[in-house]
Amino acid sequence: MSSTEDYAKRFAGTAGEWMLSVQTQAIDDLLRDVGGGTILDVGGGHAQVTPHLMAQGREVTALVSCEEAAARLNRVSGGTAPYVLGSVEQLEQPDHSYDIVIAMRMMAHVADWELFLASACRVARKAVIVDFPLVSGIHRLYPLLFGLKKAIETDTRTYTRLPHKAVTTAFRDNGFDPDAHVGQFVVPMAFHRFIKNVPISRASEAIFSPFASRMGNPVIIRAQRLPK
């Protein structure tokens, strides 16, 4: 899926590195209250999450769809990142086999996001952290703006935008409490990629930060398993 070298180029350069740092900080913040334990990084061949968590000393395993999908992860980690092969659309791991399941850049592209989320909840003992594009703010104009986005990001593709309430309801239906979230960017990411100016990007996001919780995209949401 999104683990190709072409996809990685979307986050090349200082602007891309800055956007990834925002994602990484959000993941770190959401993991802080969960504590330690084993982590499954679903679709982790893109190497955005697993190497960082390994550097923190966390016990993390990437789930990739095939050996080819692990190529970038192997290159970035020097072949040290643990990974397993399997479906990244509907997880096949045993029930409660990992403490935490993390899935970045997955919900927007899987065929059935509700089945995907249900399988992530089934596998996780403690918590699930996922991101998804939110239907809110300027992103309500997605059908009109996609052509412009395509002109700026020539390798972009269509994706599914989800209502926040639908995702939180799905978590609750699977026995999880969606207790924290981070809205990453109020200004569209395509703008940040286009201007390639991190100080301006930071300043623009700071100006609109009061709206980030409600309108920031993509949303990274954490849900913890409810006690029985």
Automatic annotation (TrEMBL):
One of its GO terms (molecular function) is S-adenosylmethionine-dependent methyltransferase activity. InterPro entries: Methyltransf_11, SAM-dependent_MTases_sf. Keywords: Methyltransferase, Transferase. The keyword Metal-binding does not apply. It comes from the Bacteria. Residues 40-126 form the Methyltransferase type domain. GO terms for biological process: methylation. Coiled coil: none annotated. This is Methyltransferase. It comes from Pseudooceanicola lipolyticus. The lineage of its organism: Bacteria, Pseudomonadati, Pseudomonadota, Alphaproteobacteria, Rhodobacterales.
